[in-house]
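Entry 14. Structure prediction run on the chain below.
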Amino acid sequence: MTVTRNRLRWFNRFIYRLSNLHRLELLKKLRGWHYSSLLAHAGSNLRIAEGVIIYNPSMVSVGDNCYIGTGAQLYPWNEKITIGDNVLIAAGVRMITRKHGFAEAVRPMSEQGYENAPIVIEDDVWIGFQAIVLPNVTIGRGSIVGAGAVVTRDVEPFSIVGGVPARLIRKRSLDAS
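Output returned:
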């Protein structure tokens, strides 16, 4: 009798854990569906983890089969953030399309205004944990941005970049072998 109860308990725990995993994926899809009605464009199969913040979502365009990880923050200030197809954005990533002006040393920083520029993430890009993408940056197709990197300038297609500021680590091989 106790063997049957133990098996039943194990089975119930297994089903509960399985249903939680399934529920988490469902919640990501529901968040994606919710945001898709707010975004300028949202492709199919958009998945958004919990805690994602997209300020001014009407300035963000996301392609098909994209994932935005837990706690990611997108700040499109007067310029668009365009994300291509099959893009993975890890947890804690931040993208901002605005930077402070600082050209005039005689004026206080608070009076120097802002400069706005778009961000473009092309297809099949992976942006690592807590990376930061700054204004006027295009991340080329098939590229990888390492965890914690600060991307201040364009990334060529099929590149792996990392560091502060992000620099080329190596190019990705296009060979299938």
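The first strand starts at residue 41 and ends at 42.
Filed with the rest of this week's runs.
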